[in-house]
Amino acid sequence: MSKVFSEDPPVRAKPKNKPAPAVSSNSSGKSYEDPGAVIKRNAIQAVTEKLKRELKATYDRMASEIDTLMSAGSTDPRTRKQQQLNKLKKEIEESSTKYDELTRWLAANDKGGAVDIDAITEPRDVLSKQLLHLVAGDAALEDCLYYMEKALLSGSLSKDDFLKTYRQLAREQFMKRATMKKVHEVQRAMKSSIEP
Questions:
Q1: Which DSSP letter does residue 9 get?
Q2: SS3 75
Q3: Residues with Cβ < 8 Å from 159, sequence gap 6 or more?
Q4: Are 183 and 127 in contact (CB under 8 A)?
Q5: Which of 60-69, 147-156, 178-187 has the lowest mean pLDDT?
Q6: C-alpha count within 13 angstroms, C-beta hemisphere, residue 90
Q7: What does 17-68 look like in DSSP terms, one character per residue?
Q8: Side-chain half-sphere of 148: how many Cα atoms within 13 Å?
Q9: Per the count of CB atoms within 10 A, which of 37, 47, 102, 192 is most buried?
Q10: How much is the pTM?
Q11: How confident is the model at residue 116 (pLDDT cuts 50, 70, 90)?
């Protein structure tokens, strides 16, 4: 789509082959920088500062881990083995507790036979059902818009027809997404009012 509109834009034409200088001067002789160059320089500076902060945090974390490992290495080997044994026993106990819990849940929820997939995947309430239909409609519109763009690029759809239909479908998709957001907010409010 961008290829078509860059060759023949519907609103206004771009100047051809006129690169903007990075630094220019106005009639009073004062120079000014290209805003794009300023933005690029500021972005590079911000990314550099962020990387420095993250590297420092990583360095500090690794240094503390090394200190911990070094101090652990200086203890008695029997003490370390005993700590590892206690840790493993605790993990085994937690795993067996979770296993027992899962076994009880499976026994309580075992229907003893074939499971009806449609009954399991059915939405529990009206809002969930509405949200399911909205998400499906949004995905269908997204696919439709994608294939319209492909048709435009291949030349099997005129620009006027494309724009008219694309605007209509995009408006419909916007309404679906706005409704999805509202439904999700209502569900979140209902959930928070139920939970203590």
A1: -
A2: coil
A3: 4, 8, 10, 152
A4: yes
A5: 60-69
A6: 6
A7: S-PPPSEEE-TTS-EEE-HHHHHHHHHHHHHHHHHHHHHHHHHHHHHHHHHH
A8: 19
A9: 37
A10: 0.42
A11: confident
